[in-house]
Amino acid sequence: MVFLMWLRGLLLRRTGRIAAASAGLALAVALPAALGMFQSAAQQSMTARAIQRVPVDWQVEQQPGAQLKGPLPGVSRQVDFASVAGLQSQANGQTLTTGGARALGIPADYAATFPGQLRLLAGTPTGPLLAQQTAANLHAVPGTVVTVHRPPLPDAQVTITGVVELPTADSLFQKVGAPAGAQPSAPPDNVLLLPAADWHRLFDALPADQVRTQFHLRIDHRLPADPAAAYTRVAGAARNLEVGLAGAGLVGDNLGAALDAARQDARYAELLFLFLGTPGIVLAVLVTALVARSGQVRRAAEQALLRARGATRTTFVRLALAETLLIAVIGAPVGLALAAVTGLTVYSSARLTGPALAATALTLLVSCAVVLLPALRPVAAARRRETPAWSRYGLDLWLIAGSLLVFWITSKTGYQLVLVPEGVPQLSVDYWAFAAPALLWAGASLLILRLARLLLGPGRPLVARLVRPLAAGLSPAVAATLARQRGALGRTATMAALAVAFAVSTSVFDATYQQQAQVDAQLTNGGDVTIGQTTATEKQLAAVPGIAAAEPLRHGFAYVGADLQDLYGVRPSTIVGATRLQDGYFSGGTAQEIIGRLASSPDALLVSQETVTDFQLRLGDQVRLRTTDGKTVAFHYAGVVTEFPTAPRDSFLVANASYLAAQAAPGDTTYLISTDGTAPHVVADRLLARFGPSAKVSDVESVRRVIGSSLTSVDLDGLTAIELAYALGLAVAATGLLLVLGFTERRRTYALTQVLGASARQLASFIWAEVALVGVLAIAAGAGAGWALARMLVLVLSGVFDPPPSSAAVPWAYLGQVIALGAAALLGAGLLAIRAARRPPLTVLRDL
Amino acid sequence: MSPLVSCQDVARTYGRGASAVVAVHGVTCALRQGDRVALMGPSGSGKTTLLHLLAGLDRPTAGTIAWPGLDERPRGQVGVIFQGPSLLPPLDVAENVALPLLIAGCAEGEARRRALAALAAVGVEGLAAQLPEELSGGQAQRVAVARVLAGSPRLIIADEPTGQLDSARAHQVVDLLTEVAGRLDAALLVATHDPVVAGRLPTHWEMRDGALREDVPWSS
Amino acid sequence: MEAIAVTADELYRFYRAGDEETRALRGVTLEVAAGEIVAVTGPSGSGKSTLLTLLAGLDEPDGGTVWITGRRMSHRPPAEQAALRAGKVGMLVQNGNLIEHLTVAQNVDLAQRLAGQVSRKRRNGLLFELGLSGRAGAWPSSLSGGEAARAGLAVALANRPALLLADEPTGELDAHSETPVLALIRDQAQTGTAVVIASHSPAVRRFADRVVELADGRVR
Ligand SMILES: Nc1ncnc2c1ncn2[C@@H]1O[C@H](COP(=O)(O)OP(=O)(O)OP(=O)(O)O)[C@@H](O)[C@H]1O
Ligand SMILES: Nc1ncnc2c1ncn2[C@@H]1O[C@H](COP(=O)(O)OP(=O)(O)OP(=O)(O)O)[C@@H](O)[C@H]1O
Ligand SMILES: [Mg+2]
Ligand SMILES: [Mg+2]
C-alpha cells in the first residue's frame, strides 16, 4: 500500500520529526488525563472526608405522640433526651450547681457504633458520663456523685464514671426538622450521658414535653465519588425515609449537610481544574501544532512533487491522516502512561472518569487535528508574507481590552463565582468569569507574537545592532536570516513566552493560595500552638523548649443588647506582632493603628461591622456590655474588627485584657504560642505532657488538616504538583524542542555558511542570536503576561481564598527553577545545533 | 612551488558491507596555481565526490589530502560551485553573494558593492533583491558563480556550473571563471560533461568508475 | 491529421514579489501532436520552466488556456486537474524530482499507484534502461547528479503519459549517458506520447522534431 510505504519511509528517514510530534502529542494528552485523575481523586477524597467527619449520618427524631415503627435503614441506635433543671455536686465542702442541663440515654455500644461521637477524657465509659464543660463547672471527676434536679420528680443521684468531649455537639443537639436557613440553636452548656437502663429508670416518668427519642443511624456508605451526586443520593434517601415514616419521625441529615458543603468545594476544585488546567492543555496542543508545523519547507516540496504526479487532495488527506495516525498511535499511549505514572505517584490512583475522560479524548482529537492541518496544507517558509489579518485589525489589543472590560463588569457587580443555594441540588457557576482570563490569554499571546514580528521585521536594524556583539561583521546576515524566519521564530518565541507565563501565573496563584491557607489556619488556631483551660502561666509556658513567645488572650462572653457575643481581651502592646495580625482583619485602618487605639485608651472596644450597623455606633460612643454573671461594664467604641485569631466568623468583641480583669468580667485565658521554628505538633505534645490532659492544646498543622469544610482545604497540592511539573515540561519543550526543530530546518543554511568559510564562532553566532532572541522574549514577555494573569486569577477566583489575600505571593524558588531549566533547554538546543552544524556539511547538503 | 592541494591514494567509500559504493579510489593528484583543469567522466563516476574531497568538505576513507599552499583552514580560500541548488534560502540574492565577504571580515558596504559587481558580471544584477526560490534554474546557477567571483579564493572548484545554461552563457561563465582565476592567481577545476565547455580549458582529467586519469589528450 | 496532445493558447504568467513584477510569459501559443518531440529552448530566465509548469496544470496562467488531449487543464477544479495529470502527464522538474524518504524504486511505485497502473515489470524496465538497476534501493540523497536526473525521468514515465514534460533532463548528463536517455524518450514518443523538453543542449535541439525558441516570455 502507498500509505504503508509512505509511513515506513517517514519512520526510517524522518524519525526525529515523528518522534518530536509524538512527544508533543503525548504531553498534550497527558496533561488533561493527569488533571482528570486529580479531579476524580479530589472528589473522592472530599466525599470520603465528609463521610468520615460525620459520626452519625442521620438523627431520626420521633414526633410527640407517635411511635416509630418498622425497620430503619443501616445501623441504628436509640438515643433518649431529657431536659432537667440542673445538676449539682459537692466538692471540698462547697456545693456547685449548674443551670438547665440535658440528660441523654445511650446504649452501651453507642460509642463503638459511632466512633468520633464521644471522646473519653477521663475514667471509664461504662457508667454515667459528664461533658467536659459540665465536669469543669461541677469540679467533677470519675467517682463524683452528681445530683440531678428533675422536677416534677424528686432529685436523683448518679455516680460519674467518666468525662467525655462531644466533638459534634452542634449536630447532636440540633433541632431536627428546623426549617432550612434557621439560626442554629446553641448546644446546651451542661450534658449528662447515662446508660439506657439508667436513663429509663430516671426519666421514664417525666412529662412527655421534657423527653424526646431519636434514632441515630449510619447508612450505607457506598456513595458516588462526586460529592454533588453523593449529596443528591443521601438527601433524597433522607426525604424518602421521612415520607415512609408518614409523620412519625423527622430526619436530621448530618451527612447530607456535610456533603452539601463538600459539593461546593468540589465545584471549586472543578473550576480550578478549568482555570488552571485549560491554559496548560491549550499550550500543550499549541506546542504540538508548532512541532507538527516544523519541516514545512520539505513538506511543501514533497506535496509539490506529489501534485506533479497527479495526487489529488484526497491523496494528501489520506497521507496526512496516515501520518497523524502514526503520531497519535505513538504519542497517545505514551501520554496516557505519563498521566498514569503521575496519578499513581501523586495520589496513588490512576482513575479516569466521565468528564475528564471526555476532556482527554477531546484533547487527543484536537491534537490530531493540529497535527493533520499542516500536513494537509503546508506553506512554503521563506515567502514574503503579508501582515496577518489579526495583526492588521489589532485583534490582540481588542482582546485585551475586552478582557479588562469583562473583568471590570464582573468584579464591579460583586458576582459570586459559585453559588450554592443551601439544600438545593443545583449549583450555579458564573462562567462569565472565565471570559476575562481567557480573553487575556488570547490577547497576550497575539500581542507577544506581534512584538516578536515587529522586532524581527521593521526592527531588523535594531536586531542587527543587538547581535553585533555576538556576530560582529556577520550581524547584517544574521539579522536578515532572523528576519526572513520571523514567522517561525516569532511563533517559537511566543510559545516559549506563553510557557513561562503559564508557569508564572500558576505558581503565583498556587503560592498565594498556600499563603492564605496558612493564614486561615493561623486565624482559626490563633497561634502556631494554642493552649487553653490550663493553669499554666505565661512564664511557665515560655520555659518550655521550642516556644518563642506565649501571648495571653482572654476569652469570655458578653451581651450586646440581647445578643451574646464572644469577648476577647488582648494585650495591645504585644498582640500585633505575636499573632501576626493582618491589616485585612480590621477596617478603617491598619492592624497597628486599630490595636493602638486599645493601647491608648483602656476602655476602648472593637466591635464587628454588623454590631456597628445594628446599633448605629459612631467612634467614641459609649457601649455597655452585660457580662454572663450579670455585671454591666462600660466601653467606648473605638473601631471595627472583622477577623480575629480564634474568633468565630460572625460577631465578636475585642477589648483590653487588663481592663476586663480590672472590671472582674468572667473569662479564662488562652495562650497563643509562637514556636522558635520547632514543628508545632512537637511543641503541642510537650505542652500536653507537661500541663496534663485537661489542658486544651491544638497546633496549626492539625488545624490546617482539620478545617475540611472550608474552601482553603480543597486539596490543591496534587493539582499544583501536576501543573507546575507540566509547566516546566512545557517551558522546556517550547524553548528547547521547538528551537532544535527550527535549527534542523535551517541545517542547510548552516551547512552552506560553513562551506562558505564561516568559522565555528561565526556559525555559532547565527545560533546564539536565535537562542538569545527567544530567551529574552520568553522571559520578558512571559514574566509580564504571567504576572498580569496571576493577578487576574487571584481576583477572579477570590472566592477560593479565605481570607482574601492582601498581596500575591511570588514563589521565587520555583520561578528560579523554571528560568534555570528554560535557560538550560535553550543552551542545550544551542549546543545541539552547533554540534549538528559542525558535522561535515556534505551529509547535510546531499540530504535535501 | 608547493601545490595548493595534493592527494595521495585517496579513496571514498559510501556505506558499509554489501551495499557499500566505492565512489572514488586510488586517486593521486595535485593542483597548483595557474592550473586550469576540466574534469570529465560519465555520470556516477565519482566527479562530485572527488571535488568535495579536494574542497575539504568531505574526508577520504583512505589516503591523505593536504593543502600545502593554503592556510591551515582551506574552507574560506576555496570557492565552491555546487551541482545542485546551493543558495541560502533565507537570504536574498545580494545577501547570498555578500555572505562569504562578510565572513572574511569585509565591511558591510564594501561587501555589498562587490556583490553587486559580481552579479553584474554574470548578468543577473536585476535579481539582487529576489529570494532564491524565485529564481529560474539558470539564474540560481549564475548567482552561485557570482558568489565565488565576489570572494578571492585561491582554489576554485566548480561542479557542473553550466548544466542549466545555454551555450552562450556557458562560455561566458567559463571565461569569467578563467579570468578570475588568472587575476587571483588561483587554480581552477571544473567538472563538466559539456565538451564545448571542457574545450575552453587547457588541461583535461577524466574519471572512470572512481579512478582518475590525468592529462587526457583532448579530442573533441 | 495526428491527434493534438497539448494546446497552449496565448499563455500569460506574471510573478509579483512586492512591487516588482516579472513577466515570465507574455502570450505563448504552442501545439504539440501525439508522438511529436518539441524542444523548448531559450536563454536562462526566458520562461521555459514556467511554460512547462502551466502545461502540467501545476500553476494557473494569468491569461490563456491549456488543453491536454482535448480536455481543458487550466482553470478547473484541482481534483479534475489532478486526475488529468495522473492519467496523462509525466513531469520531470528541473531540480529535486524524488521524494526523499522513499527509495528510487518506491518513488516510481508511488507514481504508478497514483496513476492507478501498477506494473513491476515496467518499473524494472525503466530503471534498467536508464542504467539505474543497481541503484533501485538507494535513497535519493545518495544519488549522483546524473543518477537523480535519470531517476526523475523514470518516475515521469512511470504512468505511460500521453504528454511528457521534461525540464532539463540532460543538463547533468555527459554525452555517454545522454544517449540512452534520449533513446528512451524517442521510444516513448513512438508509442504516441507527445514530448516537450526544455533544454539548452544542442544535442536535444538536434534530436527534437521541432524547436520552439523562447525569449523574454515570447516565442521567437
Ligand atoms: N516564484 C517566482 N517568483 C518570482 N519570479 C519568478 C518565480 N519563478 C520564476 N520567476 C522568474 O520568472 C522568469 C522565468 O523563469 P523560468 O524559471 O520560467 O525560466 P527558465 O526559462 O526556465 O530559465 P532557466 O533556463 O534558467 O531554468 C525568471 O526571470 C524568474 O526569475
Ligand atoms: N551518500 C552516498 N551514499 C551512497 N552512495 C553515494 C552517496 N553519494 C554518492 N554515491 C554514489 O557514488 C557514486 C559517485 O557519485 P558522484 O556524485 O561522485 O558522481 P558524479 O561523477 O558526480 O556523477 P554525476 O555526473 O551524475 O553528477 C554514484 O554511484 C553515487 O550513487
Ligand atoms: Mg556530480
Ligand atoms: Mg528553467
From TrEMBL, chain B:
SMART domains: AAA
SUPFAM superfamilies, A to Z: P-loop containing nucleoside triphosphate hydrolases
InterPro entries linked to this entry: AAA+_ATPase, ABC_transporter-like_ATP-bd, ABC_transporter-like_CS, ABC_transpr_LolD-like, P-loop_NTPase
Keywords tagged on the record: ATP-binding, Nucleotide-binding
Coiled-coil spans in chain: none
Cellular-component GO terms for this entry: plasma membrane
Name of this protein: ABC transporter ATP-binding protein
Automatic annotation (TrEMBL), chain C:
Family matches, as SMART domains: AAA (SM00382)
Key words, A-Z: ATP-binding, Nucleotide-binding, Transport
GO MF annotations, alphabetized: ATP binding; ATP hydrolysis activity; transmembrane transporter activity
Record flagged with keyword Mitochondrion: no
Domain ABC transporter: 6-220
Listed SUPFAM superfamilies: P-loop containing nucleoside triphosphate hydrolases
Family (UniProt): Belongs to the ABC transporter superfamily.
Keyword check for Nucleotide-binding: yes
CDD domains xref list: ABC_MJ0796_LolCDE_FtsE
UniProt-recorded name of the protein: ABC transporter ATP-binding protein
Pfam families given in the database record: ABC_tran
GO cellular component, as recorded: plasma membrane
